[in-house]
Amino acid sequence: MHRFVARENIDHYLGILNSEVLLGPDKRDAIIKLLIAEIDKLNHDPQQLEFAESRAAKGRERLKVVRALHDAADPKDRTAAELLVTNVQAVNDLLQNFCHQLRASVNHR
What is the pLDDT at residue 79? Predict the structure, then answer.
């Protein structure tokens, strides 16, 4: 049951981070801390590898879209676009690390 709740929480926090609503730095940091706490609950459970890989794949796709938007952004909006890319990259790195740790756990067994 705790796995289900952790996965649902991860999806919820990713949804908030990927929403169109602009979060202030404090709220964004708080959501990322909550996301990390939920990921840590699943980090040593190799059965969660498929879940982690699917979220990481979605994260890579989101990063591609955001980078394309950044490249097409008006120069006056470039600073905001760069901040968005940086934020999406940070979440993507977190998801990639989640996958890496689970793959290592699977390979270790």
Answer: 87
